[in-house]
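Quick note —
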Amino acid sequence: MKRPLFLRLLPDRLCLAAFARLFRPVNERWYPLYRDAPLRFAPNVTMELTAGDVISDYIAFTGLYELKLSRHLLRLARTGGTMIDVGAHLGYFSLLWVAANRANNCLSFEPSPRNIERLKRNVTRNGFGALIDVLPQAAGREHASLPFDVGPPEQTGWGGIAATPGVGTIVVEAVRVDEVVSNANEVALLKVDAEGADAWVLMGCERLLRGRQVKSVWFEQNRPRMRALGIGEGEAGDYLRSLGYLPSPLSNPSAETVQWSATPV
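Predicted structure written out below.
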């Protein structure tokens, strides 16, 4: 099934705006899009998605998610190298990275049990099994078992580390990225989207960051989730500065959720 012609003809930014205005909520007649959705920036790559999930909705109808980050990722991917994708969800950014350059490889961390198998299928269906290593773990500041809130049933991208165990939480294994990535590896891109726990993920990358082995960092400042976890608003940025990285916002810095990038000074 093809996407609506109207959306296929529009430029990227207008396509996203038109979808948000005209095609949500999803009509049942479009459900086949979620079984085999090609990506806008990698048309030969397809994804299996979840109907009604906001991230899946955007990818199914437009082939895009987070347009600015997608374009930035493609620029970095041309040079090649390793990407660490913390909070890989169903694999959108991981797939884009290796599709852009077959010399690339990716380590994809995804702790949510409702996403792991679909992420693995998205990797194998595109023949990327040798390029993307799916790790069914959370990344954090220490190796531990942590409470994880899987989020509402209709949203696959809203799960995250919880402050305390409770109704709707499960236990997941968290590891330090430093434990997984060898000393010899240079990381072209460290992308972190851990629903508020991004500062803890970065603390688990201390060896890589202190050694300037990471050439580019993306992370998210999710203020509501950070407050729930007791993480200070500037904690991630301050930590990166202490290791010689300069953070800068990629989106509105006064918003409740802000994307940031950081590079070595």
